[in-house]
Design brief:
alpha/beta; 12-stranded parallel β-sheet; 9 helices; 12 strands; 24% strand
Amino acid sequence: MSGMKHLDYKYEPDGASLAALVRGATLQTLDAMTVNLSWSNFCQCDFSSLQELIISGLIGAPIGRFLDCMPSLENLKIRGPMTAAESDSPLRPSNLRHLTVSSEEDCPAGAWKSLWVPHLTSLGIRSREYSEGLVETISSCLCRSKTVLKALSITVHFDNEVLNFIRSQPSINELTVRCYSKNVSEDALSPEEMLSCLTISQDPEKTVLVPNLERLNLQIYYMDHSFQPLVLARDISEMVKSRAAVGDRPTSKAVLQALSLGALTENVEDLFNEIRILLAPLVASGFQLLLDGGW
């Protein structure tokens, strides 16, 4: 196995079996989404050349300690669980460019205390719920690392904590957010409130949220009967027009070039048809619009 560079491991979710298989190899990519890899099994392998890792969990040591042994790693996708760090003292800066955490299992806020990610440009946080303090700890991690984030996908309840996190990353040019109807969580912002936050005000004194935004992916989920397709279509249209290259808006500013909208609700075609009508002039001039009722 010493010459093996790429491995797609779809066998037993046993870290010991994986470690035995790759021992002696200098892998560059490893897809082991079914495996929770313990620190003891990890230490039996040489992952110093690994550039991409897809794994279920890294357990038994803080994630920063794992990354310290993978100096070439640029892309990490981890589903959880992860181990919390005892302190917020990362070892050395990692080489990570892209990080996706799908925390269907336990993803403690303390796991981020061991991370130092100055080169990170793309971050994905995918979970319907998140543990207390998680978003704030992630924000502190990026601030400590002086990260200049370009792409953010954060599909948790859109509340004020998430809003403040997005506000702290003005360099973002591609944003993916998910918003549920108000009855899912008392703290969540409604889709209408979220769209209001994203709409650029005519008041020059107001701070623009994600001022460099070029691509926006919205996922809207109504779980009640409060859905009003024409009202929502109007709000979406106003938000897009406030950011796109229309009217006398200075072309020197970053402008929204593409909107991808996913919606799960009743009367979704009424919503989409109205959006198509309202944004038809923009689409004709090159604006990219993708509407999907089945995400």
